[in-house]
Amino acid sequence: MNAEYAGNAAAYFHLPEARILRSTSLHNADITITRLTATKNTVNLTEPIPPANAFVLSLQLQPLPRHELWLDGEHEPVAPYGRGAISVVDLAARPTAFLPTAFDCIQFYLPQATLEQLAAAEDRAPIRELAVPHGAHDPFVESIGKLLLPALSEARAPRLFVDGLVVALHHHLAARYTGARVREPHGPGRLAPWQVARVKAMIDAHLDENLSMPQLAAACELSPWYFCRAFRMTIGIAPHQWLMRRRMEKAQEMLEKTDRPIAEIALRCGFSDQSHFTRTFSRMTGVPPGAWRQPQ
Fold this sequence. Notes:
6-stranded antiparallel sheet; globular
């Protein structure tokens, strides 16, 4: 793994340090998500990227009318990319790019080691190659990118939220671009009562922590992909939405029954700081925490 690129892709494009989202739930190399934005004539030729056992999936948030790409020193034909276009580069091919125009994209850094662990959790062959035509349009990947945009501007994105989207993205890429048959789960697709009780108790016990999707899936003895689907089918919302609901309920209880400072309540309920807590609380309840605490 080229940790330098995963941790600061912007440096290779001569751009300021960018906000990075990480999915580190598999106890191995991180999947990182970075938004790279440049004005015209900002980049031109990228810095050489050292080879690594990883793919970089790029989603264009605006049209990219011109660029050039070299893989292993050989010129790779590419056409203009439209808004929503995706492309995949294998970092083992030592890519270099010429980017003379403005661009805005989201990059997903996908290490081979992590892809292998995701595949093992789903009991199938890992992704070895992604046959994605340069500039292909993929509405599913575009929807994943749009969901991630707000999180890329937050100080701390819920880990369950990022993990859930990464698991869904991996499942989609494997099914569409590898030629491998991806088995869909059989049966009713719902969690058993003991699984519901276990995962709810686990979330309640760790409201102030960033639980990962594989942790919850392992507690239910399921793969992450099956767990995500089964949880939504059983509860009616995604795991990260349930977590946020429980954090709000806990915060409301503490506001009503204690005189603890709002900053302390924010940290005890899993928010990065009081500002983040206030924004989220106001969005979900319609009033800020201080107003909620006022006697009705």
